[in-house]
Amino acid sequence: MEALMDDASLEPRLILLCGLPGSGKTTPARRWAREIPAVRLCPDEWMADLGIDMFDDPTRDRLERRFWEHAQDLLRLGQSVILEFGFWGRAERDEKRSGARALGLPVEPALSCFAFPRGFSVNEGLHTKPRRRGGRR
């Protein structure tokens, strides 16, 4: 992402953030939105602010379609956009990449964020059992 920051003054770009709910997409998205600068579109925040059930899939789908239309308008106007949709399916990512490329714009690789189980220690390796409370195994 550092290369993106170095080129921030260049042409607008679409940035896709991928990951499961709670995996840590929002924290870097907020920082990048300030640093690039970019408009960040996050359906979870809008749904929460509007009091909409987070599991209302038809509403989420309509909101994401509207955000995508808005993102394309912003890109045409020269504004970089961060889409924080999760993008679990490859077809979703490919659709957005193709749309941005049709506008003649670069697309940053979809960034993956991972959530580790509570107590998991990256320093101890992938095959280590999570620690129990109190520091004992």
* Strand numbers in spatial order across the main sheet: 2-3-1-4
What share of residues are in beta strands? 15-25%
- Structural class comes to alpha/beta
Shape, principal axes of CA atoms: globular
CATH architectural name: 3-Layer(aba) Sandwich
**What is the mean predicted local confidence, pLDDT?**
78
CATH first level:
Alpha Beta
Measured on Cα atoms, how large is the radius of gyration? 17 Å
Keywords: ATP-binding, Nucleotide-binding
GO molecular function: ATP binding
Protein name: ATP-binding protein
Pfam families: AAA_33 (PF13671)
What does this structure look like?
With 137 residues, the protein is α/β, with parallel strands linked by helices. It has one domain (2-115): P-loop containing nucleotide triphosphate hydrolases (Rossmann fold), CATH 3.40.50. It contains 5 helices and 4 strands. The longest helix is centred in the middle third of the chain and has 20 residues, at 57-76.
